[in-house]
Amino acid sequence: MTTTQPQTTGIDTIRQWILAKHEDRTDIAPDEDLIEKRLVDSLSFVEFVFLIEETSGQEIDMDNLDLGEVRTLAAIEKRFLSA
User: Fold this and answer.
1) DSSP per-residue string spanning 17-67
2) Distance (Å, rounded) from C-alpha 24 to C-alpha 27?
3) Residue of 57, 52, 59 whose CA lies nearest to 73
4) 74 and 68 in contact (C-beta within 8 Å)?
5) Do 18 and 52 meet the contact criterion of CB atoms below 8 Å apart?
6) What is the pLDDT of residues 17-69, one digit of tens each?
7) Which of 10, 18, 49, 71 matches a 20 to 30 Å C-alpha distance to 43?
8) How far apart are CA 19 and CA 25, in angstroms?
9) This prediction's pTM
10) What is d(CA 21, CA 3) in angstroms, rounded to the nearest whole number?
């Protein structure tokens, strides 16, 4: 008998990337401000945006990026991962 792993969604991939950088955390609320709480800082921001691009399959124009679109997991999911 084989067991199947639950499917990882795009937002789960992003959540796990953030949690891997903050081992003191076990979860992130969908509406938690990632920038204000320093879960994504200026040093990791470009890598974070690249991860969103990879996960969503959408190119993100950094010159026109509205920070509100990447400030929370809920905003990322709504803007980049909704069908």
Assistant:
1) HHHHH-TT-S---TT--TTTTTSS-TTTHHHHHHHHHHHHT----GGG--G
2) 10
3) 52
4) no
5) no
6) 999 999 999 999 999 999 999 999 999 999 999 999 999 999 999 999 999 99
7) 10
8) 6
9) 0.87
10) 29
Among 5-9, 59-63, 78-82, the range scoring the smallest mean pLDDT is 5-9
User: Which positions ≥6 away from 80 have C-beta within 8 Å?
Assistant: 10, 52, 55, 56, 58, 60, 69
Tokens of 29: 């609320």
Provide the residue type at 48 as one letter.
F
Return the structure tokens found at 1.
């008998």
CA–CA gap between residue 47 and residue 50 (Å, rounded): 5
Angle value at C-alpha 74, between 35 and 58, nearest 5 degrees: 90
| Sequence spans of domains, the chain | 32-83
Cβ(39)–Cβ(22) below 8 Å: yes
